[in-house]
Design a protein that fits this description.
Helix content: over 70%
Largest sheet: none
Number of helices: 6
Distance between the termini: 29 Å
Number of strands: 0
Shape: elongated
Keywords: Membrane, Transmembrane, Transmembrane helix
Length: about 140
């Protein structure tokens, strides 16, 4: 999507006002209804970027660590009488727990939460734009 230099200021102002109004659905719907089809298409192209909702690698590590830690707890409870299995289970459990703490302390969790919240607002804007564009294109086809 290319925007000319003279239209960039008006487009950036349009994007910022729509992003501010995204928390209230009624106001957002009124603001989007007042836009032309071209402005709606540009706005949709801008907000429908390739941003991710959550960090996949962080989520994958948490799920894998939780699963392995759960299996180690099960093995520890099942084979408490066997010293070798108990030591290996406790070691794996400690490694998994430390890995989960390292993930929680090193990854920017609050930044990911803010990005996910913003992505949710942008998805709401894109879905409303889709609805409005569908209505307008059906009106054009009827004429």
């Amino acid at each position: 999507m290319r925007i000319s230099q003279k239209n960039s200021n008006s487009f950036s102002q349009l994007i910022s006002t729509i992003a501010e109004k995204a928390d209230n659905i009624e106001i957002l719907n009124e603001a989007l209804d007042s836009l032309s089809i071209e402005e709606l298409e540009r706005t949709k192209a801008y907000f429908a970027g390739t941003g991710t909702r959550t960090s996949f690698y962080q989520l994958r590590s948490i799920i894998m660590g939780s699963f392995i830690a759960g299996m180690m707890i099960f093995l520890l409870n099942m084979f408490q009488g066997y010293f070798f299995v108990a030591v290996i289970s406790v070691t794996f459990l400690a490694v998994c727990a430390s890995h989960l703490f390292i993930i929680a302390l090193t990854f920017p969790i609050m930044l990911n939460v803010r990005l996910a919240y913003a992505r949710g607002k942008y998805d709401r804007i894109v879905s409303l734009i889709d609805i409005i564009l569908t209505e307008r294109y059906t009106e054009i086809r009827r004429k």
